[in-house]
Amino acid sequence: MSAPVIAEIVRSGFVEGHHYGSVLALAVDGSVDWSVGEVVAPVLPRSCNKPVQALGMVRLGLDLPPDLLALACASHSGEPFHVDGVRRILAGAGLEESALQTPPDYPLDDEERDALLRAGGGRTPIHMNCSGKHAAMLATCVLLGWDTATYLDPGHPLQAAIRSTFEELTGEAAYAATDGCGAPLLSTSLVGLASAFRRIALGVDGSGAPDAGAARIASAMREHPEMVSGTRRDERALLTAIPGAIGKAGAESCYVVALPDGRAVALKTDDGAARVRPVVMAAALRRSGVDREPGVDGDAVRHTGLAPLLGGGKQVGEIRAVI
Q: Is the pTM of this model over 0.90?
């Protein structure tokens, strides 16, 4: 494989496998501080794109309270407050749940899925983790008088505006694919992804000028990290441990975190394994010294990177980063 090893699977002292991928860290000024692997080739960041998509909607006039704006950026766990939040967004636009075009799914969180099944429930569009983004897209269409039935069409004016914002913030032309939720999925490199999040964290646009919309997105994510992911998720634990940080995980083992001073880290593993994503991010932040900085809960940062391997119900190994 062209990508280097960034993590090892170690059982009883024996390296039984590897994860390959790439990692990038930006310095305060936006330059590359360090990198591993291929960081300038395009990737599909999956749900890491959501805060940038939400910024595109805010620039169009979408005006949500901070908790619901954070939910528009989310791959939510399907906890009751997430589902209620999606309903609030839809109700504010005068829409029913039937307007959502997310594929029916169970809650992302295992406990919430089990509770739903025990209650006799099943897969629904509102429980799908992207329903907050979709509700925000629908609300934006209602605000501007655009067709809601075709809001996922790449040629829809909503998606054209989102693409314009995305390419501005990443500084790169995007390839348009289709995400798992059915929405257009735009490509960028790890450099572009980290740069976009850096700009949101700083509250600036693609040229570096102050951007009120970007500042609103960053503030919402900082105030409501549980809305962006869930109460039991590693992303929430990490963002809570680093004051002022914003971040977003995506499918296929994508992850990006930006700090309030303009530093940012982005990563992607080739095999798409979710289990290694927080391991590598914690290691990248440690390499940059973030866990040792004043005000940061270093133990909590390091804890998000623990991935024990069990044998007979006891820990016999771990997934460890090698960056």
A: yes
